[in-house]
Amino acid sequence: MWDYSEKVREHFFNPRNSGPLDNANGVGDVGSIKCGDALRLMLKVNPESEVIEDAHFQTFGCGSAIASSSALTEIIKGKTLDDALKVSNQDIADYLDGLPPEKMHCSVMGREALQAAVANYRGEVWSDDHEEGDLVCKCFAIDAVMIEETIRDNSLKTMEDVTNYTKAGGGCSACHEKIEDILIAVNGRLYSNGPKVKKAPKESPVKPQLTNYQRIRKIEDTLEAIRPMLQRDHGDVSLIEVDGKKIYVALSGACQGCQMEAATLGGIQHKLVEALGELVQVLPVAAMANH
Q1: pTM for this one?
Q2: Which of 40, 82, 97, 219 could form an S-S bond across to 7 if both were Cys, CB 3.0 to 4.6 Å?
Q3: What tens digit of pLDDT does each residue of 65-85 get?
Q4: What is the DSSP string of 26-50?
Q5: Is 139 a known active-site residue?
Q6: Domain CATH for 49
Q7: First-to-final CA distance of the chain
Q8: Do both 243 and 285 map to the same domain?
Q9: Long-range contacts of range 132-135, CB-CB < 8 Å, 24 or more positions apart?
Q10: What does the CA dihedral 128, 133, 134, 138 come to, rounded to 10 degrees?
Q11: 56: CB partners within 8 A, 6+ apart
Q12: 94-144 confidence digits (pLDDT tens)
């Protein structure tokens, strides 16, 4: 169990500025379909002074993601855009009296959402898309630029640090050598484990294959665990069909047609990939018509 501060708990159970913001003139959407965390930050900026008069958020993620987003909106209200852009992910964590190391990526996501929202207000193009060849961690879609910037901005020294702040390397471990190379390039030497030594890749143990019945039960159990989070926001999800690697679900209530629907489906997909131990694709029931 993570060791959360009282302030993290407070902002999780009673988040500030949660929900849509009427007349927002700056909106930033960030998140990874595979990692399951998604954040929309909405700003109401005074066009004359460029002061942030109000800020709201919507997020699909863990308690730390909710608390970090809530804290961010409180920090930036009343600041000019230029001053807000100086807020670091460490500032967000400090405002919450610290985050568990394994949850620091939530504060990084908040900082990116702020950059995206400011760019949107200014009519600039902000993108976290990955160029071909720059993708380092395929499990969580983390590119080299993000890893480099996060290492530099937070003085990261170890592989574990990088995983905690970005999630990169937290899946299959195939990208560990590339991450170590980036650590060396940024820091000049590898702090984590002494001199870099290449090791022969370990063979993954063969996992027993689930029967069709066990697989469907696992899917249903996973959806059942996700359901309370969706119901809290007046939404729900139901399993409709399982066709090989494709899992069709129906979103209902507030989740149906929501602007964050793609992020919600991505979060569900991530949880099912973890539970099943295989790559699957979660699709809305409407996609069955084109199948």
Answers
A1: 0.58
A2: 97
A3: 888 999 999 999 999 999 999
A4: EEEEEE-TTT--EEEEEEEE-TTT-
A5: no
A6: 3.90.1010.10
A7: 42
A8: yes
A9: none
A10: 80
A11: 17, 18, 19, 20, 21, 24, 41, 42, 73
A12: 999 988 887 888 888 888 899 999 999 999 876 654 444 477 877 676 778
Structure tokens at 50: 């460029």
Catalytic entry in 106, 137, 139, 175: 106
For 147-183, the pLDDT digits (tens) are 888 898 888 888 888 888 887 887 667 888 888 888 8
Catalytic residue (one of 35, 139, 175, 255): 35
The answer to the question of residue 194 being in a domain is no
pLDDT one-digit tens code per residue, 25-46: 999 988 754 455 778 899 999 9
Q: What are 31's two structure tokens?
A: 């998140």
Q: Domain holding 164: CATH number?
A: 1.10.10.1100
Q: How far, in Å, are 68, 81, 93, 199, 225 from residue 140 at the CA level? A: 20, 30, 22, 23, 22
Amino acid of residue 146: M
Query: Which residue is it, tokens 């019945």?
Result: 213
Q: Is 258 a catalytic residue?
A: no
Q: What's the CA gap between 194 and 189, in Å, rounded?
A: 9
